[in-house]
Amino acid sequence: MSSAHSAHLGRVLCIITGASKGFGRTVAKEMSGLVKPGSVLVLAARSEDDLRSLQAELTELEAGRAGLRVESVVADMAQMEGIENVVRSSEEAFSEHIDHLILVNNAASLGDVSRSVKTFTDMAEVDSYLSLNVSSSMCLTARVLQSFPQRPGLRRTIVNVTSLCALQPFRSWVLYCTGKAAREMMFRVLAEEEPDLRVLNYSPGPLDTAMQMEARTRTGDDGIRKSFVDMFDQGQLLTCEASCAKLMKLLLEDNYTSGAHIDVYDV
Ligand SMILES: NC(=O)c1ccc[n+]([C@@H]2O[C@H](COP(=O)([O-])OP(=O)(O)OC[C@H]3O[C@@H](n4cnc5c(N)ncnc54)[C@H](OP(=O)(O)O)[C@@H]3O)[C@@H](O)[C@H]2O)c1
After folding, report:
1. Whose CA is nearest to atom 44 of ligand 1?
2. Domains along the chain?
3. Cα 259 to averaged position of ligand 1 atoms, centre (Å)
4. Which candidate, 5, 76, 122, 201, has a CA 20 to 30 Å from the CA of 250?
5. Shortest-distance Cα residue to atom 13 of ligand 1
6. pTM of the complete model beyond 0.85
7. GO CC annotations (predicted)?
8. Ligand 1 pocket: which of 135, 176, 211, 240 to mutate (most atoms <8 Å of CB)?
9. DSSP states of the chain
């Protein structure tokens, strides 16, 4: 990959789901330092206090003082109402000066990782998991693309935060692996259909977040659980900042193949 890249992402409208904590929160912070004045960040999650504290923090940073606008949307992304609220806030925040639309589909849940496939007999339980982890990112992406259609002078980038689990089966992780694989394929189809879009499936690696703690403590399969415990004990987890820096490098260089799965360790 070439080292030549732009120093900023443009005058951006950036929508980030799951921005209240973990990787999404870090993406919001890093993004704020790479956008031109007049840019807007639309931050979505369910935890209102965490979103408000992030909004206050970003507004006090240099970017905030230079005119970055930050909108918090308290929304459950598993509900159509939550998706509509995010789209409405984004439409209200948009202006003709925006030259780069970025959607970061980051919100996700681990689901029940304590059980094997043969225990999932309840269709409502499976549907509920897939609703947040697959359906919501498809419908949000579709709504955003409809609200901000292709036009001269507007770049559009769609990021899906994916995982090794989209490619590799993990025992007792059927919900998460299924969701990540389905979601990634969805964005690959999108990349095929819309050649003007830039679509990136970014796999951030093992991150030191709440989700990773859940993996260490709740995984049903002994071998898989031990591998997560070992990674933690041996200091192999990545910080959100280190992984996010790689994502920002990819976005700034902008020479990945649209629809590709790119792993943090390959950047
Ligand atoms: N951690 C890892 O090791 C790892 C590895 C590979 C990939 N990933 C992926 O990286 C992304 C971020 O993971 P993370 O580790 O940062 O997870 P995390 O710490 O659990 O954070 C998840 C985020 O998603 C939001 N969220 C969850 N359910 C939501 C809902 N119904 N509506 C709206 N927002 C919701 C949460 O906010 P609220 O609770 O406030 O709603 C939170 O901001 C995910 O896509 C994950 O699959 C993580």
Report:
1. 108
2. 12-206+241-266 (3.40.50.720)
3. 21
4. 76
5. 23
6. yes
7. cytoplasm
8. 211
9. --S---SS--SEEEEEES-SSHHHHHHHHHHHTTS-TT-EEEEEES-HHHHHHHHHHHHHSHHHHTT-EEEEEE--TTSHHHHHHHHHHHHHH--TT--EEEEEE--------SS-GGG---HHHHHHHHIIIIIHHHHHHHHHHHHS---TT-EEEEEEE--GGGTS--TT-HHHHHHHHHHHHHHHHHHHH-TTSEEEEEE--SBSSHHHHHHHHH-SSHHHHHHHHHHHHTT-PBPHHHHHHHHHHHHHH--SPTT-EEEGGG-
